[in-house]
Design a protein that fits this description.
Strand 1, helix 2 and strand 2 form a beta-alpha-beta unit. This protein has a 7-stranded mixed beta sheet, sandwiched between helices. 31% of the residues lie in helices and 18% in strands. Helix 1 runs parallel beside helix 2. The chain has a single domain, classed as Rossmann fold, CATH 3.40.50. By secondary structure, it is α/β, with parallel strands linked by helices. The radius of gyration is 16 Å and the shape is globular.
Amino acid sequence: MPEITLADEFGRAIAATIRACDVRSVIEVGSWDGTGSTTVILQALEPAPDKQLTCIEANPERHAALSRLVASRPWVTTVCSRSVSRAKMTPRSFADVWHSPHNRLGYPEEQVRQWWNTQTDGPGHFETLTSETWDAALIDGCEFSGWDDYRLLRDRVRVLMLDDVFRAYKCSHAHDDLRRQWGWQCIWSSSFCRNGASIWVKQ
């Protein structure tokens, strides 16, 4: 799946939401090398006063590239870590993912099993949080930790931007949960863009 950019509908919706909702601080889960959604967020936040972007990227090589890209912006913090450790993830086994009612992946079982088996391990950054809050969160990290990313961030933000909600496992549970949550409104959603994406605002 290509990275999120202003060339796709979700990237443009992210930028528009940041401007319309006066977002000044964002936590991004799954930044890759910074050339995708990170760049969209950087450009949208640039005019804002007191801006802050926190980028979470677990892969050391991609994190190194990300760090180089944002080095000239002191308002950006990068973290080389998983968001949630494997020990703290809700799915405890591949079977928990594959047989979940929230599994909407269109890939062969053995391919998804390989993704599960080759996950990196290590501490989870969100397990160290205390009172930190942000205006918005973009959740687009590990395929198997999207629910836990959402669970740990929902009460710390007022805008949630979810990738991979309709034809994936990653954020499908989070999207379904927000539909039942009083006080959250979906302001943008597309089942045609990428594997589906949605943006929610706390009312």
